[in-house]
Amino acid sequence: MTPQGQRGKVAPTFLLLVPSVLLISFLLVAPYGYMVPVSFCKPGQISGYEKAFTLANYAKALGDSYYLRIMMWTLVYSIGTTLGCLLLGYPVAYYLARTRTKWKGLLMIGILSPLLVGVVIRCYGWMVLLADNGLVNSLLGRLGIGPFKLMYNPFGVMLALVHINLPFMILTLTGSIQTIDPVLEEAAQSLGASPRRTFFSVTLPMSLPGVYSGTLLVFLQVVSAYAIPVLLGGFQVMMTPILVVQQVIDIFNWPFGSALAIVLFIVSGLIIWLYTRAMNRLMRGLA
Amino acid sequence: MEGKRRQGGIGLAVAVALIYVFLLLPIIIVVLAAFNAGEYLSFPPQGFSLRWFEKFFSSEPFVRSFIFSLRLAFITTCISTVIGTMASFYVVRYSRIGKDFLRVLHTAPMMLPGMLTGTALLIFFYTIGLGGTYAGLLLGHVLVTMPYVFLAVSAALYNFDRSLEEAARSLGARPFTTLGRITLPLIKGGIISGAMFSFITSFDQFPISLLLSGVGMTPLPIQVFDYLRFEFDPTAAAVGTVTIVMTAVIILVTEKFVGLESMYWGSK
Q1: Domain of B97?
Q2: B-chain residues within 8 Å CB-CB of A142?
Q3: Is the pLDDT of residue B244 over 80?
Q4: Of A82, A132, A138, A273, whose CB has the highest number of CB atoms within 10 Å?
Q5: Using 50, 70 and 90 to split pLDDT, how confident is the model at A2?
Q6: Domain co-membership, B1 together with B121
Q7: ABC transmembrane type-1 domain spans which residues (chain B) (predicted)?
Q8: Cβ–Cβ contact A28 with B under 8 A
C-alpha cells in the first residue's frame, strides 16, 4: 500500500515536518515558555527586564484593585460578547444548515466576506455609524431624538466585538447543525412535538458540540481583543490586553506585562476548564 | 411536512435577514464613506467625491505602508505555503502516531490569541536579537499564516483518491513524476486557497504586526490604526475600500480555481 514499501526502502518522510516543527517550537513554544521566567523578573532600567527574582509582578497583577477590576470587566465583556454571538449566530447557522435555496453559495460569501476585511477597517465602519455626529445619530436627529452616546462606552465595544466574531460562530454552528439528520426533527414533529419543543429537545441538544466549539473560539478571541476596545472604547473602556500592550510597548515593563498576560491566560483557562466540564456533563446527560 | 416547517420559516428568515444587515452594514458604510464628499457620513449624504482616494494616494505614509504590506504578505505567503504544504503531506499521509497531536500543534498558532503570541514573540525576539527587525516581523507572519495552508492542503489531501497515484506508479512513473504530474495538480485547489487565506491574513494582520514591527516598518493596518486614534476623516475609508476591492479580486480569481466552500466543509 504505502509507496515506500513498494520500493523496498523507507523515504525519510519525516523531513517534511522539520520546517514547520522548527517554526512552531522556535516561535510558539519557546516564546510562550520564555514569558514565564520573565514574569518573575524585576523590571529593568535600561533593558526590558533585570535578571532578579521577584513575586512583585504577580502581587501587583492579583492584588491591585485597578488591575483586578479591569480583569473582571474583561471577562464580563468576553462572556457577554460570546453569548451575543451565540444568540445572533444560531438562527443564521440553522437557516444555512437547513436551507435548500440555490443562493446558498452567495449567503455563505455574505458570512465569509466580513472575515476578509481587516479588523481595523471594520472598526472604522462602526465608528462612522456610532460617532456622536455619526450616521445613526444624524438619522435619529432627523426624527428629533438623540444624540446618544453610542461609542467610547461598553455598548460600542461589545457591539463591534459581536460583529467581528459572529462569522466564526456562524461557521462553526452551521458545520455542526448540518450533521444533524433532519429526519430526527421531522420524526419529533410527526409525533406531535411543537416546533419549539422540537428545537429544544432535538435540535439544540444535538448541536451542543458546535455550540461548545463556537463559544470557545469566540471567547478566546474576545478575551485577547485589543484593536476593537481601543478604537471603539477610546481608552474609556479598558480591557486587560490593552494594559499588556501598554506595559510591553509603551512603558517597556516586560515582567509586569508578562505577568498580566499569564494571569489572563490562566484565568481564561480556568473558565474554559469549568465550562468544558459543565458542557461535557450536559452533553453526557442528554446522550 | 415541508409546509409545516416553512411556517416558522418566515420569522426565521426575517431574523436571518436582519443579522445579515448587521454583518454587512459596517463594510457597506466604509465604502459609502469613501465616496462621500463630506468629512462625516451623515444623512443625507453630501454628494459623490473621490477626494479621499486622492488623499490616500497622495499621502506618502499610506502608500508606503500599502506597498510594505503587499510585499510582506507576498513573501510570507511564499514561505508559509511551502512549509504548510510539506507539513500537511506528512501529517495526512505518513504520520502513524500522534496524528491528532500534530494537527493540534500545526493549528495552534491560529487558535492562540494573537495578542498573547505577539507579546511573547516581542520579548523573545528582543532577547535573541531579532527585536524590531524585518526578519522577526516576517517570521511572526509566517507563524500565524501557516495553519491556513496546513488546513486547506490537509482537506484537499483527505479528499484525494490515492488510486490515481498508484495507477501512475504502476505504469512506471517515478515518485517525483507522480508528485508533479498527478498529486500536485490534483491538490492545487487546496494549495491555492491556503495561499490565498495566508495572503489575506498577513495583509490584514493586526496584533502580530503591532507588536513586532520596528522603526520604519509600518504595515497598512497599523498605519490606519495609528491614524484613527487621532483623526477620523474618510481617508481610512478610502484605504478600506481599496483593500476590500483588492481582497474581492483575489477571492474571485481563487474561486475560478476552487470553490471556497471546500475550505470549511469539503474535508472528509
Answers
A1: 60-265
A2: 43
A3: yes
A4: A82
A5: very low
A6: no
A7: 66-254
A8: yes
Q: Total domain count for chain B? A: 2
Listed by number, the residues of chain B in 47-66 with a beta carbon closer than 8 Å to a beta carbon of chain A are none
**Could you give all domains of chain A from N- to C-terminal order, each with its CATH number?**
64-238 (1.10.3720.10)
Residue B212 inside a domain? The answer is: yes
Confidence of residue A25 (pLDDT cuts 50, 70, 90): very high
Q: List A residues 74-113 in contact with B (Cβ-Cβ < 8 A).
A: 88-89, 91-92, 94-95, 105, 107-113
Is residue B54 a part of any domain in this protein?
A: no
CB-based contact B236 A121, cutoff 8 Å = yes
- Residues of chain B with pLDDT > 70, as a percent, come to 91
Task: Tell me how far apart the alpha carbons of residues A91 and A93 are, in angstroms, rounded to a whole number.
Answer: 5
